[in-house]
C-alpha cells in the first residue's frame, strides 16, 4: 500500500485538529484537538519510518506519546483548577494575562 | 654669535636656590590652611617669607658676582619631575645672571610691596572682623604669586616655565577678583583669565612644537639644537611664543585685560600688573633669545607688536580720568618699549631687561603713590575729584614726583637711561624699520610726558576740587598722609626711580647679563645719528609736558567729564574701540556659535536620541495591544507563522 494514503490521512487529521484548536472554545475540546494533531504527526512519523526502513521515526513517535501523556496530566490539572475558580472551561474567559 | 656659556652645577648658596620659591610657597600654604587662627600674624609671616627669599637671593647674587663671567651660568636639578616615554623633565633650576636679576626684582620690589600692603590692607577702624581675614587671604595669594613668579624665572626648562606661567596667572586671577563683593572685580578677573588663556595656548603650542621637533624641553639642549630646525618651524615657534608673551604682558592685540585688572587692590597692581608678572613676556623672549636670534622675520613681528602697543597705550593713557587706569595704560605702553627692545635682537635684549628693571622701580612706586592717594581719598580713583593734594600729602607727592620724572625720561633719572637707550637702538635699525620704530617710540615718549603731566597736575596741583564734593560712600574727603609703613616703601622705590638707571648702567648691567643674553651689540648708526636721539626725545617730552601744562594746568579742571569731545578723545576714552572690537568680532559670534551649538545639541543630537526613544515607546504601546489574552488568537498567529516558515522553506527549495 502506498504511503501516500497514510500521509493524506495524517494531513487530514492534523488539519481537523488545527481547525478545532482555532475555532472551539471549550478547553477540553481544544485539548483533544491538540492530541489529534500530535497523533497525526505520529502517524506521519511512523509512515516515514516504514518508508525508509529505519526505526528513528518510530522511536520519535514513542517520545511524542510519552510527552503527550505528561502534557495531558499537567494540562488537565490546569483546566480543572481554572474551572474551579471561574466556573467556566471556555478558553476565551481565561484572558487575564494580557497587555 | 658667541658660543653659549658652559653650564655648571650650582654650588654653595646656589644649591639652596629652591628655597627661594619654597619659602613663599610654604608661607602661602600655611596662610591658606591656617584660616582665622592666622589673622593676627598672617601679614607678618607673608612679609617675612618674601624678605627671607630676598636675603637668600642677595646671597646667591653676591656669590655669583664672585666668580668669572663664564662660570655664572649654573643649574640645579632637584629631582626627576615627569618621566613618561621619551619625555623627561627634571624639576631643575637655572641660576644665571638673567634669572638672578629677576629674582632680585621680584623679591626686592615684592618685599617693599608686601610691607606697604600691611598698611594698605589694614582693616579700617570699626570695620567688621572679616576684613582681618581678608588681609590674611590677600597675603596668602600675594605669597603664592611670588612663589609662582620665582618658579617661572628659575626653571631650567619650558615645562617649569609653564608651571610658573600658569601659577602667576592663577594668582593674578585671584587677586584681581580680590574684592569678591564687586561684580566689576569678578568680571575683570574673568576677562584677565580668559585673555591670558589665549596667550597661554600660544605658549603651550610653542612648547609642543619644540618637543615634537627636538624631543627635549631643557633650555640648554633646546638652544644648542634649535639651529637644526627649518626656518619655517623656527618662525612658527617664535610667533607662538610671542602670542604667549602678548597674553601675559598685555600686548596688542591682547592688551585690554590689563587696564581692567586695576579692579584688584593697588599693591597688586603695583607688584603683578606693573613690576613683575606683566614683564614675564619680556622675560620669555629674552630667555629664548637663541631662538629669536635665528629669525629676523620673527623679531620684526615682535618689534612691530611692541611699537603698536606702545602707541596704543600712550594714546589711551591721555584720555582716562581714572588714576590707576592711566598708570595701567602707561604700563602697557612701557612694556611695549621692552617688547620693541627685545624685538631688536642682540642689539636690544639687555636694553629691554634694563628698562624692565627701572620700570619695575618707578612704576611700582607710582602705583604705590596712587594707592596712597586712594587711601587718602576714600578709595576714589577719579582724578577730576582730586586736585591740590601735593600740600596735603607731601611724602606721597615727592615720591610720586620722582617716579613721574623717571617715567617721562627726565635727564639722568632712571627712565632717561633705559628708555633713551631703547629709542637709540630703534633708530639704529636700517631702512624703514629704523624710522618706524624710532619715530613711534619718540612720539610715545612725548605722549607719555603729556599724560603723566596731566595726571600730576590733576592730582597734586591746582584747586582743591574735593572740598565741595562728597566721596562715593557719602562722606567728606579728608586727605591725609599715609602711615610710615606705606610711605617707607614708597621712599625706597622713589630712590630707586631716581638712581637705578644711573647705577645700573654705571655698574655694567649689560656685561652682567651677557652670559644669558649674549654680548649687547652696539647698534649701528642706522637712520639717525646717536648723538641726536637724546635731544630729540628730550624735546618731544618737553613738548608733551608743555602741552599738558597749557591744556590742563592753566585752566580749572571741570569736575564733570566734558562731553561731547572730538573723535580722537572719544576713541581713546573707549580704549580705541579694542573692547568694542573684541565684543563684535569675537564675543558676539562666539555667543551665536554657542547658541547654535546648544540648539543643535538640544534639537539635533538629543532630538535624535529622544526621538528614537519616543518612537520606540509609542510603537511598543501600540504593539502591545496585540497581546489580547485570547489563547486562540495566539494559536492563529502561531499557525500563520508556521505556514509562512514552511512556505518560505518550500519556496526556497523549489524556486
Automatic annotation (TrEMBL), chain A:
GO MF: NADH dehydrogenase (quinone) (non-electrogenic) activity
Recorded coiled-coil stretches: none
Protein's cellular compartments: Cell membrane; Membrane
EC number: 7.1.1.-
Catalytic activity field: a quinone + NADH + 5 H(+)(in) = a quinol + NAD(+) + 4 H(+)(out)
InterPro entries found in the cross-reference section: NADH_UbQ_OxRdtase_chain4L/K (IPR001133), NUOK/Mnh_C1-like (IPR039428)
TM annotation in the entry: 6-23, 28-49, 61-83
Keywords in alphabetical order: Cell membrane, Membrane, NAD, Oxidoreductase, Quinone, Translocase, Transmembrane, Transmembrane helix, Transport
Keyword Transmembrane helix attributed: yes
Entry membrane topology: Multi-pass membrane protein
Domain of life of the source: Bacteria
Pfam families per the UniProt record, alphabetical: Oxidored_q2 (PF00420)
Top EC group: translocase
Record-linked NCBIfam families: PRK05715.1-2, PRK05715.1-3
Subunit structure and binding partners: NDH-1 is composed of 14 different subunits. Subunits NuoA, H, J, K, L, M, N constitute the membrane sector of the complex.
Function text: NDH-1 shuttles electrons from NADH, via FMN and iron-sulfur (Fe-S) centers, to quinones in the respiratory chain. The immediate electron acceptor for the enzyme in this species is believed to be a menaquinone. Couples the redox reaction to proton translocation (for every two electrons transferred, four hydrogen ions are translocated across the cytoplasmic membrane), and thus conserves the redox energy in a proton gradient.
Family: Belongs to the complex I subunit 4L family.
Protein name per the record: NADH-quinone oxidoreductase subunit K
